[in-house]
Task: inverse folding
C-alpha cells in the first residue's frame, strides 16, 4: 500500500495520544493471555504427569495387617511366579514410615514410630502394561494381599481434574477475550472520535476506506503485540516460581520453560494481533459507513 | 462536466430536499449556487460529492453516471474535486504545511511530491511565508486560504466551496472569491454555494438559484448577466418568508 510508512507512524501516534485507554486495553489483554497461557501450561504438565504415571510399570501391593514376615516372603514368591511380573521388592512398614520422616519432622516421627499403622507392601515391576489388569486380578487372588495401588486410577483422577480446570479456563478466557475486544474497540472508537476531523477530510479528498482504516488497525495490532510481549514476560517470571512451589509439595518433573516459551510467545503474539485487529475492525467498520457531517456528529 | 437530470431527493424522515432538478455545468465554468437556508443547496453539494444518492434521476460527472458507482469507487470520484468548507476544517495540531500535505498523504502521494507541490500551492494562495504557522495563529481569511490550498493541492478538476466566505470579514470574502476566480481562469470548474448576495452580484458569474428544493433561476438561461439578474430571480419566487431574510433587496 502506498504511504504505509506514514500510516504506521500515524497508528503508533494514536497509541501514544490515547495512552490511558491503550494501557487499559493492554492490561485486560495481558490478564487474558496470562490466564490462557497458565491454563495451557498447567494442562500440558498434567498431561505429562498422567502419561508418566500411566506408563509406570511399578505397582505397590499392600499386605493385610495380620500377615507375618514369613508369610510375606511366600506371598512375594507367589507374586514373582506370575508371568507378567519381572521383580518384587519388599517394603516393610518401618521402611514406609521412614520415607515420611523428613516431612513429619523428628518430634512427630518419634511420637508415631511406635504406633505405625502402615501396611507391609511389595513394589511389583510388570513387564507388559497391556496385561496390567489381568496381572492385578491375579495378585488380588493371592491370600494375604489387601489392596493394590492402581496407578491408572490416579492417572484418571488427574485427567479429570485437568479437564475440569480446562473447562473453567475456557469459560473465563472466553469472557476475558470478549472484554478485551470490547475495550480495544472502545479505545479505537475514542481515537476515531478525537480524529474525526481528519477522517472527514480524508474521505472528502478521496482517501480509500482501507487507507482511512489502516492507522486504526495498526493501533489495535500494536496494543495486541505489546500485550503479547508483556504476557510472555509475566508468564516466564510466574512459571518457574509457581512450578518450584508446586514441586516442593508434590514432586514431579515439570516441562522446563525453555522448551515451551517460544510456542507460548508465538501463540500470545498471534492471539494479541487477532484480538487487536478484530477490536479495531469492528469499531471502524461502523465509522466508515458515515459520510460528511455525520462523521463529525453534526 | 456536471449533469443533474430530473434529480429529486427525499430523506428517510420525509423531508423533500430537491424536486426534479435539471442542471448542466460545463467544464471550466464558475457557478454560484444561491438560496436561502434549507433551500436545498447542501443537498445539491452532498449529491455531487456522493455523500447522498438521489431518490430519482441521474447525476453524471465527467461522463460517469455516479448513481451506479460502487462504494469502493467513490473515493476516486472525490479525487476529481476539492472541497472548501465554511468552517475551514483545519487540524489545529498541524501547521499550515501539514494541513495542506494531509490531503496529499490521504491519497497516498509520495513525500517527495508533497514537498514540491505544497509550497507551490501555498504560494498560489499567498501563504508561502506562513507554512510553519498553526491555524490558530492565522486570521479567518488566511485560514480559508489554507483550506482552499488543501482543496487545490491534489489538482482537482472541480472546486466545490460551501459558503467559503461565511466565517470571514467582507474584505477577505472578496479576496477569497477573487482567488477562486483566478483558479477558475486556470481551467478549474468552480462551484460556490453562498447566500452573500452582494458578493454574487459583484463577480458577474453564472448564478443558479435554488429555493424550496427547486431551481428557480439560472442566469445562464438569460444569456446576459447583469447586477439585477440575481435579484430578478428572487423576485420571481412565490412568497416564502425566509427569502427576505437571507437575500434582502
Result:
Amino acid at each position: 500500500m502506498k504511504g504505509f510508512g506514514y500510516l504506521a507512524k500515524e497508528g503508533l501516534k494514536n497509541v501514544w495520544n490515547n495512552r490511558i485507554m491503550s494501557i487499559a486495553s493492554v492490561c485486560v489483554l495481558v490478564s487474558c493471555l496470562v490466564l490462557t497461557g497458565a491454563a495451557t501450561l498447567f494442562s500440558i504438565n498434567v498431561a505429562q504427569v498422567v502419561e508418566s504415571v500411566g506408563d509406570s510399570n511399578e505397582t505397590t501391593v499392600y499386605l493385610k495387617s495380620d500377615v507375618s514376615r514369613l508369610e510375606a516372603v511366600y506371598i512375594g514368591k507367589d507374586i514373582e511366579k506370575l508371568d507378567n511380573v519381572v521383580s518384587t521388592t519388599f517394603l516393610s512398614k518401618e521402611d514406609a514410615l521412614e520415607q515420611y520422616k523428613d516431612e513429619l519432622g523428628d518430634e512427630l516421627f518419634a511420637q508415631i514410630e511406635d504406633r505405625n499403622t502402615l501396611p507391609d507392601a511389595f513394589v511389583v515391576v510388570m513387564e507388559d502394561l497391556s496385561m496390567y489388569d489381568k496381572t492385578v486380578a491375579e495378585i488380588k487372588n493371592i491370600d494375604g494381599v489387601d489392596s493394590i495401588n492402581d496407578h491408572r486410577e490416579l492417572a484418571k483422577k488427574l485427567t479429570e481434574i485437568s479437564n475440569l480446570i480446562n473447562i473453567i479456563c475456557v469459560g473465563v478466557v472466553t469472557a476475558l477475550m470478549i472484554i478485551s475486544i470490547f475495550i480495544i474497540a472502545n479505545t479505537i472508537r475514542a481515537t476515531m472520535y478525537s480524529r474525526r476531523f481528519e477522517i472527514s477530510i480524508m474521505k472528502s479528498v478521496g482517501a480509500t476506506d482501507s487507507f482511512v482504516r489502516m492507522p486504526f488497525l495498526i493501533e489495535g495490532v500494536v496494543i495486541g503485540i505489546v500485550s503479547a510481549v508483556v504476557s510472555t514476560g509475566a508468564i516466564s517470571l510466574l512459571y518457574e516460581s509457581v512450578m518450584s512451589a508446586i514441586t516442593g509439595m508434590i514432586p514431579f518433573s515439570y516441562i522446563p520453560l525453555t522448551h515451551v516459551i517460544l510456542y507460548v510467545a508465538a501463540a500470545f503474539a498471534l492471539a494479541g494481533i487477532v484480538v487487536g485487529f478484530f477490536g479495531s475492525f469492528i469499531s471502524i467498520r461502523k465509522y466508515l459507513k458515515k459520510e460528511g457531517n455525520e462523521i463529525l456528529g453534526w | 462536466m456536471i449533469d443533474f437530470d430530473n434529480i429529486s431527493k427525499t430523506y428517510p424522515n420525509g423531508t423533500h430536499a430537491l424536486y426534479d432538478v435539471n442542471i448542466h455545468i460545463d467544464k471550466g465554468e464558475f457557478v454560484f449556487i444561491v438560496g436561502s437556508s434549507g433551500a436545498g443547496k447542501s443537498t445539491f453539494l452532498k449529491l455531487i460529492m456522493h455523500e447522498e444518492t438521489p431518490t430519482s434521476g441521474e447525476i453524471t460527472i465527467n461522463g460517469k453516471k455516479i448513481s451506479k458507482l460502487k462504494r469502493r469507487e467513490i473515493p476516486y470520484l472525490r479525487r476529481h474535486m476539492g472541497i472548501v468548507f465554511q468552517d475551514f476544517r483545519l487540524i489545529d495540531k498541524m501547521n499550515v504545511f501539514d494541513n495542506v500535505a494531509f490531503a496529499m498523504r490521504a491519497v497516498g502521494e509520495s513525500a517527495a511530491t508533497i514537498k514540491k507541490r505544497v509550497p507551490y500551492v501555498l504560494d498560489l494562495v499567498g501563504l508561502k511565508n506562513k507554512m510553519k504557522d498553526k491555524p490558530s495563529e492565522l486570521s479567518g481569511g488566511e485560514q480559508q486560504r489554507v483550506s482552499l490550498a488543501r482543496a487545490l493541492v491534489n489538482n482537482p478538476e472541480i472546486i466545490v466551496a460551501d459558503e467559503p466566505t461565511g466565517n470571514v470579514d467582507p474584505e477577505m470574502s472578496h479576496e477569497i472569491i477573487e482567488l477562486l476566480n483566478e483558479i477558475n481562469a486556470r481551467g478549474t470548474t468552480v462551484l460556490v454555494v453562498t447566500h452573500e448576495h452582494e458578493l454574487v452580484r459583484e463577480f458577474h458569474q453564472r448564478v443558479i438559484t435554488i429555493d424550496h428544493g427547486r431551481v428557480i433561476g439560472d442566469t445562464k438561461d438569460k444569456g446576459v448577466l447583469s447586477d439585477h439578474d440575481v435579484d430578478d430571480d428572487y423576485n420571481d419566487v412565490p412568497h416564502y418568508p425566509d427569502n427576505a431574510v437571507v437575500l434582502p433587496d
The interface with chain B takes residues 1-3, 6, 197-198, 200-209, 211, 291-292 of chain A (CB under 8 Å).
